[in-house]
Amino acid sequence: MFALQSDRVALRFGDRALTHAELAGCAGALAQRLSGLPRVAVWATPTIETCVAVVAALLAGVPAVPLNPKVGERELAHIVADSAPALVLAAPGVELPPGLASVPRLDVTPDGTSDAAFADPGDEAPALIVYTSGTTGSPKGVVLPRRSIVSTLDAVAEAWEWTSDDVLVHALPLFHVHGLILGVLGPLRRGGTLHHLGRFSTAQVVEALDGDGTMMFGVPTMYHRIAEEVGSAPALAAALGKARLLVSGSAALPVRDHERIAAATGQRVVERYGMTETLMNTSVRADGDRRPGAVGVPLPGVEVRLVDDAGATLDEAGAIGEIQVRGPNLFTEYLNRPDATAEAFADGWFRTGDVGTRDEDGYFRIVGRKATDIIKSGGYKIGAGEIENTLLEHPSVKEVAVTGEPDDDLGERIVAWVVPSGPEPAAGELADHVARLLTPHKRPRVVRFVESLPRNDMGKVMKRALGT
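RE: above sequence
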């Protein structure tokens, strides 16, 4: 799965670094201690130790369960009971919560050497078990086989022209697909370098990209902070302009932020589309048209289709339907949930629950989640994302989320949750702004001003928490 023989730096966290050869040695030594275990948990702090632990588990053929260090008591209890890890791997000195008291702890140290050979467990062997956010119930353990990780990393490498010469810069958490699989295993598979910033700041981005950084991964909240500063920060604009590739994922990047970054840097951000169960599905290619709001074309080996409410395939450009995916990038099952696994598929296609559309030239655009981002109002199906991007064009709007709520007359009425950029504008002014730029039936019927929007660790707005 990895090329771990060179003396090139593989991992850099602050002033700590490991070469590929050093990583192979210490991870190999740890893998010998893990060999034969059913599965292990990893307390996934943003450290070198987390990376060593995951690589060791992969070498040993032992499924690893990354744990969010901010996980709540109830969620942790569910994950521990569901996955039954034999050990929890953690960095020395890190305090673990009482919910892990029943699981033996093994401290991970980035030292030791081993040249032991490990048997290849096979393409379908479970590699990682990543728990979903649990927005509609207890989190489900998504079993990702080695096949899905390898196919995704090789597909995005082709699309992004990713090589061993690249130095990836990011500050993403390491318990999620974006930060761990793309952001750690991606550089290791290519034989390149990960430079993890620890905590995101634009000052650190400047330093890293002014150094040897060639690529940056981020989420929209990070790029929003960049967009807010870059117009008046020449050093930041210059550093971003030097990067070979800027990639945003985990949620849609607002068009306004796209344009502000492009205007200041001459660099357009690449968006891609994936999820825990599928890893990566589509992306704008490095040599492709980096158009705002588009997540590109299907990656090599991945099939993507749109279907209507009856399950019929929608072939015409511009049609809106549920996105379904099939290919080697898919997960195997939800751990201990055969019912949920069966329900997630339709004739071999994974039902993402996301709604999208396809341009004439095959570029996909994400409209939103079927459950929270499609509003049925007055006989129309309305995408929340389009209204959000339009409201963000208003100078008085800093952040916004659009939802639907029951309405006796309309079925659902459109509600805009607005974080103002200054004094609160009149609600009617915002509604008129949308009606003028889109159509009257897409205007928000209710505007609620809030100090901030609830977000998860990946920066996604948790719309179900609005109004509760």
